[in-house]
């Protein structure tokens, strides 16, 4: 056996070029199947990307804890005491629950601070936070870096500014490493954050929580605490919530059952809903994909059956002239595989081109339609294999029947 | 060249069995030019298909060029068809999407002859049947007589030991029929064994020997 039987392929190309309609119909069926599959899967991915963007902040399973006022007396203490968290609470929670991937506190400075840079002087709100806040709020850094543990520990006066702050204050200038004044304290700009969803976040300045506490508050208070529950399940999140309440209740002397003492905002429900939505979209995409492939297989099998039927007389003649059944099966299948593969490849190619063209569309619920190369090639391969198997059975039958019978048809 | 002994053949369906050949004994020498005659349904085509290894027989023995043709695998059958036999059909059986010369060279493809030599040989035999100038035409562009001549060229191209023709003139008019028979005669004169099935007396008369078949057996010359 030669690797490429040129005589055979020459015979096949003659057959293909002389049967333009048959070739075109086969090719069109496969082309359309793959083309539609690529478009559907790509568009579905675009839909998923768009929705993922919409629900970006909800896609994090976060838990927020705010201090309130007691509504029950406890251990001889009166009601209406204000509960304010501090660094001890933060440390205790952090130590007690190492399985929590990200934990951060936040301090709001009560008034806007005046930012001074060169001749500019503008008022912005400033928040002091732990480094982990980046992962809890899903903050996107477009330039420079975010606040890190070292900044926090060393009480370094560094600031991450929002995109709008950058535009207002620096314009075209590179802000990284520049010194700015916030109130009467000097800071170095280390990064720029960008949040497509929230204008407010883009008008904000972030500084290390240690700096906020030392420079502006003179105490160790924390306004609220946020954390990410990672891949904990519903029960584990519930247990974590109760554990944290117990710690805070012990530290601040309130009744754990007192619902007013602190407020817990558990985003697990939102998170679960978004996860379910994604799962639904994924399932739909798979359904569509598997459906298109099945339709493609049925279509290709049908075409193969018709082709082999169409060629029965030819097969009889070839056999009468001395063709072996094997050579006939090989000829029919090679031709079919060649056409299917070429058409599948073209369908894939044009599908990707169309996806590329519509990728310019960037609406709220649709962005970056794309298809995994692997998925596309797998689809082409499945169709080729299915087509081959579908052709193999009738081709073998046709090659087996008596040449006289075959020629009569 | 051909030796048949007590050949039996029945067409069996699920419920019925039709005994067509009931003990055929026949010898044909190398270089003979013979015709098989008989009424419709007497089993002429059945016999010829067995001789051409296009069909199997139930019992008896068939020797072709000294070799027993029995219980052949598909591959062996294909090999013998290609090596020993040239077959001409009533309905020509040319491939319509191939030109005359491509049709003629097809048996050589299955003999793994290279393309250039295939073409040369095919042109040679097209010239022999007088259709050299029609080599590039498709069968649909040719008359019935021309198509049958292409089919004859195709059957000759492998230089077979035996040429078998099942009513080769059945679809042709009288004049064309005689032209085609002239061609067979010419082939026979080159030393080939030629066997033709026909039910036309004046076609059979062209051959040197007439074999009569009736009710599935060969009539002895006395009975004719
Ligand atoms: N494939 C088949 N299945 C069943 N019966 C068949 C088959 N082929 C032929 N026969 C029957 O066998 C008998 C002989 O057929 P055959 O074709 O050999 O006759 P023939 O002598 O060639 O007739 P004709 O002159 O009409 O061509 C007929 O009765 C025919 O109906
Ligand atoms: Mg007949």
UniProtKB/TrEMBL annotation, chain A:
Record's keyword annotation contains Transmembrane: yes
Residue ranges annotated for the ABC3 transporter permease C-terminal domain, each copy included: 287-403
This protein's record includes keyword Cell membrane: yes
Membrane topology qualifier: Multi-pass membrane protein
UniProt keywords, alphabetically: Cell membrane, Membrane, Transmembrane, Transmembrane helix
Location(s) in or outside the cell: Cell membrane
Cellular component aspect of the GO annotation: plasma membrane
Gene Ontology terms for molecular function: transmembrane transporter activity
Segments passing through the bilayer: 21-43, 283-308, 328-359, 371-393
A Pfam family it matches: MacB_PCD
Domain MacB-like periplasmic core: 23-220
Family membership noted in the UniProt record: Belongs to the ABC-4 integral membrane protein family.
PANTHER family referenced in this protein's UniProt entry, alphabetically: ABC TRANSPORTER PERMEASE YTRF, MEMBRANE COMPONENT OF TRANSPORTER-RELATED
Protein name: ABC transporter permease
Gene source species: Membranihabitans marinus
Source taxonomy: Bacteria, Pseudomonadati, Bacteroidota, Saprospiria, Saprospirales
UniProtKB/TrEMBL annotation, chain B:
Record organism: Membranihabitans marinus
Gene3D superfamilies in the record: P-loop containing nucleotide triphosphate hydrolases (3.40.50.300)
InterPro entries: AAA+_ATPase, ABC_transporter-like_ATP-bd, ABC_transporter-like_CS, MacB-like_ATP-bd, P-loop_NTPase
Family: Belongs to the ABC transporter superfamily. Macrolide exporter (TC 3.A.1.122) family.
Alphabetical list of SMART domains matching this protein: AAA (SM00382)
Residue span, ABC transporter domain: 2-224
A GO cellular-component term linked to this record: membrane protein complex
An MF annotation (GO) of this entry: transmembrane transporter activity
Pfam families linked: ABC_tran
Designated name of the protein: ABC transporter ATP-binding protein
Keyword Membrane appears in the UniProt entry: no
Keywords: ATP-binding, Nucleotide-binding, Translocase, Transport
């Amino acid at each position: 056996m030669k690797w490429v039987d040129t005589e055979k392929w020459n015979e096949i190309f003659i057959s293909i070029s002389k049967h333009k309609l048959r070739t075109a119909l086969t090719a069109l069926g496969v082309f359309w199947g793959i083309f539609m599959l690529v478009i559907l899967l790509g568009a579905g991915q675009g839909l998923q990307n768009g929705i993922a963007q919409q629900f970006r902040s909800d896609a994090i399973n976060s838990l927020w804890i705010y201090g309130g006022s007691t509504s029950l007396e406890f251990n001889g203490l009166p009601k209406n005491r204000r509960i304010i968290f501090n660094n001890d609470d933060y440390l205790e929670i952090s130590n007690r629950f190492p399985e929590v991937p990200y934990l951060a506190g936040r301090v709001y400075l009560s008034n806007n601070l005046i930012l001074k840079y060169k001749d500019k002087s503008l008022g912005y709100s400033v928040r002091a936070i732990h480094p982990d806040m980046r992962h809890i709020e899903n903050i996107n850094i477009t330039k420079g870096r975010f606040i890190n543990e070292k900044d926090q520990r060393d009480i370094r006066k560094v600031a991450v500014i929002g995109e709008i702050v950058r535009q207002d204050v620096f314009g075209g200038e590179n802000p990284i490493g520049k010194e700015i004044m916030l109130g009467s304290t000097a800071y170095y700009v280390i990064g720029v954050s960008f949040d497509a969803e929230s204008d407010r976040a883009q008008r904000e300045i972030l500084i290390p929580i240690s700096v906020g506490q030392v420079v502006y508050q003179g105490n160790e208070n924390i306004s609220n605490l946020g954390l990410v529950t990672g891949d904990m399940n519903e029960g584990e999140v519930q247990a974590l919530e109760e554990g944290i309440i117990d710690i805070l209740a012990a530290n601040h002397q309130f009744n754990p059952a007192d619902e007013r003492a602190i407020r817990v905002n558990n985003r697990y429900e939102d998170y679960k809903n978004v996860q379910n939505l994604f799962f639904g979209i994924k399932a739909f995409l798979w359904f569509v994909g598997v459906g298109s492939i099945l339709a493609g297989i049925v279509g290709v099998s049908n075409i193969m059956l018709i082709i082999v039927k169409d060629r029965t007389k030819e097969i009889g003649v070839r056999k009468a002239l001395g063709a072996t059944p094997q050579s006939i099966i090989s000829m029919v299948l090679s031709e079919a595989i060649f056409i299917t593969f070429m058409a599948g490849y073209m369908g894939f190619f044009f599908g990707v081109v169309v996806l590329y063209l519509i990728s310019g569309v960037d609406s709220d619920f649709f962005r970056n339609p794309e298809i995994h190369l692997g998925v596309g090639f797998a689809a082409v391969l499945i169709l080729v294999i299915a087509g081959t198997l579908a052709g193999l059975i009738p081709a073998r039958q046709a090659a087996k029947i008596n040449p006289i019978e075959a020629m009569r048809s | 060249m051909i030796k048949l002994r007590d050949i039996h053949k029945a067409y069996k369906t699920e419920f019925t069995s039709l005994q067509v050949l009931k003990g055929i004994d026949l010898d044909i020498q190398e270089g003979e030019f013979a015709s098989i005659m008989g009424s419709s349904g007497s089993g002429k085509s059945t016999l010829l298909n067995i001789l051409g290894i296009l069909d199997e027989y139930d019992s008896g023995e068939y020797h072709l060029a000294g070799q027993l043709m029995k219980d052949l695998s598909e591959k062996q059958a294909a090999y013998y068809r290609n090596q020993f036999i040239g077959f001409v059909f009533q309905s020509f059986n040319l491939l319509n999407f191939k030109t005359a010369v491509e049709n003629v060279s097809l048996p050589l493809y299955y003999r793994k002859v290279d393309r250039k030599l295939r073409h040369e040989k095919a042109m040679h035999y097209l010239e022999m049947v007088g259709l050299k100038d029609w080599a590039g035409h498709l069968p649909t562009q040719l008359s019935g007589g021309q198509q049958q001549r292409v089919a004859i060229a195709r059957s000759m191209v492998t230089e077979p030991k035996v040429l078998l023709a099942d009513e080769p003139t059945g679809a042709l008019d009288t004049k064309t029929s005689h032209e085609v028979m002239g061609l067979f005669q010419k082939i026979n004169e080159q030393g080939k064994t030629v066997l033709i099935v026909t039910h036309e007396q004046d076609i059979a008369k062209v051959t040197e020997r007439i074999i009569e078949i009736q009710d599935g057996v060969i009539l002895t010359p006395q009975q004719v």
